[in-house]
Write a structure and sequence with these properties.
CATH topology of the largest domain: Rossmann fold
CATH architecture of the largest domain: 3-Layer(aba) Sandwich
Order of helices and strands: EHEHEEHEHEEHEHEHHHHHH
Radius of gyration: 20 Å
Helix content: 40-55%
Number of strands: 9
Number of domains: 2
Number of helices: 12
Strand content: 5-15%
CATH class of the largest domain: Alpha Beta
Strand order of the largest sheet: 3-2-1-4-5-6
CATH superfamily of the largest domain: NAD(P)-binding Rossmann-like Domain
Distance between the termini: 57 Å
Shape: globular
Length: 295
């Protein structure tokens, strides 16, 4: 099997995925518009280029990009030359974009697979991400060596092109809602004199348990570090996109829409670069060292 692969987008997630593939024996090339990101990847043994078009025709490609719009602008450049077998898009993108690009790739003899991931920097750095895969059966077969390398087998084939995007957006809006509800619940516990860390541990051993109560609040909110590496701006975007795609099929998820609105409010108050765990400052300020942001 040809093990030449390009990673487009060498930020926190893409850079970690490139390093994981490099350690696994892939011949990795990479592109990012940021010279600093290219330099960081280069110091880790990744060959970098300063024009994404130079990666056209690479047998395998991984995308880790900021939005569907950027994905849509990038993929045609990668397909300008023959030779690409599969493009695996780990971006939290939009289903209509992925469906359109899957058709384009098929016309050029390649597969386009939407495989947005969960697991953060730690998962990307260890090859233990979870992927939500949307692809034709043949498309997944073509991309499987890459998906396996990034996830260690932790992926679910959810349906045709775009299906991975749908479920990943639903996953993120559920996490967004849980970050609001767990924060509010722990603030109530604190108001009654219960240590919120102990309350979180109790809840996490019972029916109200979630990754948010078991890890996110203890590790990133109650500790005061807010250093998850995932921005509030991206989570607010994903929550809004989930509500948007629901509306495209006539669904009106009221609770999820209300949670999404809390994220838009937090975005307006804290800005897009805040860590996503800083949502606690707006929904449960008593739990945070910084308290409620100034209006």
């Amino acid at each position: 099997m040809d093990k030449q692969i390009a990673v487009v987008g060498l930020g926190s997630m893409g850079g970690a995925m490139a390093s994981t593939l490099h350690r696994a024996g892939w011949q990795v090339s990479g592109f990012d518009p940021s010279p600093d990101a290219r330099s960081a990847a280069g110091s880790g043994g990744i060959r970098t280029v300063d024009d994404v078009g130079l990666l056209a025709g690479t047998p395998y490609v991984v995308l880790s990009l900021p939005s569907a719009r950027v994905v849509e602008a990038t993929v045609p450049q990668l397909l300008e030359s023959a030779g690409t077998i599969a493009i695996v898009d780990t971006t939290t993108s939009e289903p209509a974009t992925s469906a359109k690009l899957a058709v384009l790739a098929a016309e050029r003899g390649a597969a386009f697979v939407d495989a947005p991931v969960s697991g953060g920097r730690a998962g990307a750095a260890t090859g233990r991400l979870t992927a939500f895969v949307g692809a034709t059966p043949d498309g997944l077969d073509a991309a499987r060596p890459v998906v396996e390398a990034l996830t260690g087998g932790q992926y679910q084939h959810l349906g045709g092109p775009g299906s991975g995007n749908v479920v990943k957006l639903l996953n993120n809006v559920l996490a967004a809602a849980n970050l609001v509800s767990v924060g509010e619940a722990l603030a109530v516990a604190k108001a009654y004199g219960v240590d919120p860390a102990i309350a979180a541990a109790g809840i996490s051993g019972a029916s109200g348990a979630s990754l948010v109560s078991a890890a996110m609040y203890p590790d990133w909110v109650l500790s005061g570090t807010h250093d998850s590496g995932f921005s509030l701006g991206l989570m607010a975007r994903d929550a809004a996109l989930a509500i948007e795609i629901a509306g495209q099929r006539g669904e009106q998820p009221g609770l999820l829409a209300a949670a999404s609105q809390r994220w838009q409010d937090a975005l307006a108050r804290l800005g897009p670069s805040a860590d996503f765990t800083e949502i606690a400052r707006t929904v449960a300020p008593s739990l945070t060292r910084e308290g409620s942001p100034k209006s």
